[in-house]
Write a structure and sequence with these properties.
By secondary structure, the protein is an alpha/beta fold. The chain has a single domain, classed as Rossmann fold (3-Layer(aba) Sandwich), CATH 3.40.50.1000. It is about 35% helix and about 15% strand. It is built from six helices and six strands; from the N terminus they run E-H-E-H-E-H-E-H-E-H-E-H. The protein has a six-stranded parallel sheet, with helices on both faces. Helix 5 links the parallel strand 5 (about 110-115) and strand 6. The longest helix is centred in the first third of the chain and has 12 residues, at about 45-60. The structure holds magnesium ion (MG). Magnesium ion binds near residues 32, 35, 36, 116 and 117.
Length: about 160
């Protein structure tokens, strides 16, 4: 069983650059929504994140929404607004969602990176699947379970190849 260390750990998604992805050998990003692109209570990301998504697309990086959120409407409305393929109820760290995403994109696991804010879903799933794991600091700091979860994640909040 792989340990859920991220390959890369950044403050937020806007720190991800085409140069970094090239270095990682990655051409597609699987994007978590809640706590990663925006707070769970929001319906659209902040403008810098929208700009970042646009820049990634313009650089030829393939983007795909891979969300564990169970609210079909929330995920669909956002993904359609930013014109990206998507999955809700992805059940990360389970592998079925990762496999379907890779199949739909026509990319191998090693050509993909999962970008997410949670160690035991996003990072662990990515490690199991064999893609790169990019951990970002969660934007969901207002949730009551934020600190208990952070405490449980502490041992794995450092980069490891
Ligand atoms: Mg999340």
């Amino acid at each position: 069983m792989p340990l859920p260390f991220p390959h890369v750990f950044l403050p937020d998604v806007t720190h991800i650059t085409p140069a970094l992805l090239k270095q990682l050998g990655v051409s597609g990003l699987l994007l978590d929504i809640d706590g990663t692109l925006m707070q769970t209570r929001d319906s659209m990301p902040a403008q810098p994140v929208l700009d970042w998504m646009e820049n990634m697309k313009n650089a030829g990086i393939i983007l795909y929404i891979l969300s564990n959120n169970k609210h079909h409407h929330r995920v669909k409305a956002f993904a359609e607004a930013v014109e990206l393929p998507w999955q809700h109820l992805a059940k990360k760290p389970g592998l079925a969602g990762f496999r379907l995403a890779a199949q739909r994109l026509g990319l191998r696991p090693d050509q993909l990176a999962m970008v997410g804010d949670q160690t035991y879903t996003d990072v662990f799933g990515a490690r199991r699947f064999g893609c790169k794991a990019i951990l970002v600091d969660s934007t969901d700091t207002y949730l009551w379970y934020f600190w208990p979860r952070r405490l449980a994640e502490l041992p794995f909040r450092k980069e490891r190849p």
